[in-house]
Amino acid sequence: MTEVVRAPDRHRGPTLKDVARLAGVSVATASKALNGRSEVHPETRQRVIDVAERISFTPNTLARSLLVGQTGTVGLLTNDLEGRFSLPILMGAEDAFGTGKMSVLLCDARGDAIREQYHLRALLGRRVDGLIVVGSSTDPRPSLGQELPIPVVYAYAPSADPRDASLVPDNVAGGRQIVDHLVATGRSRIAHVSGDSAYAAARERAQGVTEALAGAGLPLIGGQTFYGSWTEAWGRSATHALLDQHPDIDALVCGSDQVARGALEVLRERGVKVPQQIAVTGFDNWEVLSADSRPPLTTVDMGLEALGRLAAERLFAAMDGRPTAGEERLPCRVVVRGSTDAGL
Amino acid sequence: MTEVVRAPDRHRGPTLKDVARLAGVSVATASKALNGRSEVHPETRQRVIDVAERISFTPNTLARSLLVGQTGTVGLLTNDLEGRFSLPILMGAEDAFGTGKMSVLLCDARGDAIREQYHLRALLGRRVDGLIVVGSSTDPRPSLGQELPIPVVYAYAPSADPRDASLVPDNVAGGRQIVDHLVATGRSRIAHVSGDSAYAAARERAQGVTEALAGAGLPLIGGQTFYGSWTEAWGRSATHALLDQHPDIDALVCGSDQVARGALEVLRERGVKVPQQIAVTGFDNWEVLSADSRPPLTTVDMGLEALGRLAAERLFAAMDGRPTAGEERLPCRVVVRGSTDAGL
DNA sequence: AAACGCTCCGAAAACGGTTTCGGCGAAGTT
DNA sequence: AACTTCGCCGAAACCGTTTTCGGAGCGTTT
Q1: Is the same domain home to B85 and B183?
Q2: What pLDDT does residue B19 have?
Q3: Do B308 and B165 belong to one domain?
Q4: Residue with CA nearest C1' of nucleotide C13
Q5: Those residues with Cβ within 8 angstroms of residue A310's Cβ, 6 or more apart along the chain or in another chain
Q6: pLDDT, tens digit, for every residue of B105-137?
Q7: Which of B93-97, B127-131, B252-256 shows the lowest per-residue confidence on average (mean pLDDT)?
Q8: Which long-range contacts (CB under 8 A, 24 or more apart) does A52-57 make?
Q9: Stretch B85-110: mean pLDDT, rounded?
Q10: Among all strands, which nt has the closest C1' to B2 (CA)?
Q11: Most CB atoms within 10 A, among A230, A233, A251, B50?
Q12: Are residues A318 and A248 in the same domain?
């Protein structure tokens, strides 16, 4: 009559029952001994611990989760694993979680809503305690809905629904900060070459640039932001055109480090000294591009790891019954290098 | 007498019991209905399905896992989440898994053995069905040991223990391939500037370069591989030195795309035409560096996503009772761009 | 009318832990 | 000597699901 159900092949490791049997106690006592509860004689406890160690007993987290209703796992739903934005966020989150005893279940939806829905169900089925959704651009994305049984935090790409909690870098402030830096170091004839205007990030940064210039009473040389694509090639051609029409600029704000690299190359080619004649700035602080160029690029760091950590903290708070809502904008940081400061 | 144990606060979602009650059947029947088993009347089945849909029932995977002894989860233990090598591998693995119903539990040990051990225990406790360990360089790393209850596959960084299954890119062949390409396109005076010689990758690639040159009966100009660091700065200074001493080279094989970018910049500065006078090659096919340079870089792609996919497949095979062992070297692929072919 | 086969359903065991609560000695109290 | 107190331990419920196996109901055959 016993053993009606039996997984046929699978080798299972030692269980608490085995520990209990070998230590000559009940499973209840074994459990209490291993979990440091008080109602166990020290000697008995040691015996249990020794046995557990000896047979290398590893408690089955699943069983515990099933009972207590929490898994100690969070889902990380990303939309571009290859992108350079998800990664630091993921690291920051892993960091914040790792110190405790949370694990991260990673899913990549690749921008496909169907796949996203599929992964969502999988995560829900695995009873994750919370969810971080990270997008590939700062453009708002559809909400996962308000009906989910677990808290959700959106990182980098905010949710379109203001009832959700979203964390995004403050691109507008970033644009302002970089212009403030240039103005503070004596530049006054500033132009702005950015990337693809379809990206909210490009428009937001341009807005910041415009605001800061207006605040300083300075003109935007060229009269507009020159949008193009997030490539070195665009940076090169835009810089050529700009220099032809406005040879008197003394600073060039670029929408990304890639664009700035293109600009740097053309300026060098045309014999323009950076930063003496023209200062150049990037955006993103993508180190492989910005740290080792000639001269190294002054750029804006969006602090994505901090954003990831904060996302984890917001999630913790929500799981703890203290949810937040709305879009939270995190400050950027200007990283000053040689392209704006001859001393570096 | 009922409800002795009760999780106090946690809101639990609808369970199979709820579905069964609302559909007027037993849990056994409800389970069978939802899982498409045959011994259920079509009408009953539909009723159950409708109820499940209506109350948005999500089966608790944990309970199932506990019973059948498999979780449908694999652990991904990485050592540099920020590095550019882990990511494609992770994507490839996620890809291979995602099609089925596997989930990925991600841990970043950051090169710290303690943290690695800690994460390993967490993964074991969560009863992952298998483990992929991905390192940050192709240097061998210590084995996790043979005593683990689940199969392990090492990716990118091989295990030092030959009994383990390891998957690495074939750097030696990559070095050979790039030289073969140069020789085939008419180059004969070839020099090699690489990165940090402490990396196995640098030494292996150099070995391939040397072998291929010897095979073609050609000398390595300069008489040696010039090791330095994986930076543009090193690429620049090495190229200057090389041109001063050997102005007659017609090809420069670089150990990475970063080094190649530095070389490209110096060649342009010194008025040397690439590829007409000197061909330049990189390694890694890091697109942000190689695809948009002037000219675009011919480079070697290590096929890391394929490596990740294969790691997943090897893991599946092992979980299925067909383990592999030893170090498997995966082929690289030369990506031809303008820096070696004037037509591009 | 009895025997049989078939379809559909439900009781119950099982997975591996945690927690509650009652029991049992031994020591202390009166 | 009887009663209380206290420390330590174990039986059993419980989490949510799957699977087995017996049984009920019903139609068909001899």
Answers
A1: no
A2: 97
A3: yes
A4: A4
A5: A92, A167, A328, A330
A6: 999 998 999 999 999 999 999 999 999 999 999
A7: B93-97
A8: A52/A19, A55/A14, A55/A18, A55/A19, A55/A22, A56/A14, A56/B147, A57/A13, A57/A14, A57/A15, A57/A16, A57/A18, A57/A19
A9: 86
A10: D13
A11: A251
A12: no
Q: Return d(Cα B48, Cα B29) in angstroms, integer.
A: 9
> What CATH number corresponds to the domain at position B156?
3.40.50.2300
A262: tokens are 């293109």
pLDDT > 70 fraction of chain B, expressed in percent and rounded: 97
Is the pLDDT assigned to residue B4 strictly greater than 50? no
- Mean of per-residue pLDDT scores for chain A: 94
Instruction: Kindly state whether residues A319 and A246 are assigned to the same domain.
Output: no
Task: Provide mean pLDDT across the span A157-166.
Answer: 98
Residue with the two structure tokens 């399905």: B49
pLDDT band at A313 (very low <50, low <70, confident <90, very high): very high
pLDDT at position B80:
81
B187 and B282 co-located in one domain: yes
- Scanning residues 57 through 96 of protein chain B, those with a beta carbon under 7 Å from any atom of strand D turn out to be 57-60, 63-64, 66-68
Output b/e per residue, B38-63; b: 16+ Cβ within 10 A: eebeeebbebbbebbeeeebbbbbbb
Number of domains in chain A: 3
CB within 8 Å: B82 and A87: yes
A275-297: average pLDDT: 97
Q: How confident is the model at residue A4 (pLDDT cuts 50, 70, 90)?
A: very low
Which residues 296-335 on B are within 7 A of strand C at the CB atom? none
Give the domain CATH number at A32: 1.10.260.40
Q: Between B89 and A118, whose confidence is greater?
A: A118
Reply yes or no on whether the pLDDT at A97 is more than 90: no
Query: Which of residues 37 to 56 on B have a Cβ less than 7 angstroms from any strand D atom?
Result: 37, 39
With an 8 Å Cβ cutoff, are B105 and A107 in contact? no
Do B271 and B244 contact (CB within 8 A), yes or no? no
Candidates B57, B99, B106: best to mutate against A (most CBs of A within 10 A) is B106
Residue A222 and residue A211 in one domain: yes
Q: What's the gap in Å between the CA of A84 and the closest CA on chain B? A: 9
A20 within a domain of the structure (yes/no): yes
Q: Which domain holds residue A321?
A: 71-169+304-331
Residues of chain A with Cβ-Cβ distance to B122 below 8 Å are 101, 103
- Residue pair A164/A225 in contact (Cβ under 8 Å)? The answer is no
* Chain A hits for B70, Cβ within 8 Å: 10
Cβ distance A58 to B121 less than 8 Å, yes or no, reads: yes
Subunit contact B10:A69, Cβ cutoff 8 A: yes
Is A106 part of a structural domain of the chain? yes
Q: How high is the pLDDT of residue A7? A: 40
Residue B193 has pLDDT above 90, yes or no: yes
pLDDT at B11: 63
Q: Rounded to whole angstroms, how far apart are CA atoms A110 and A82?
A: 9
Residue A205: predicted pLDDT: 98
Residue of B58, B149, B293 with shortest CB distance to A121: B58
pLDDT at A3: 35
Handedness of CA B238, B244, B246, B251 (dihedral sign): positive
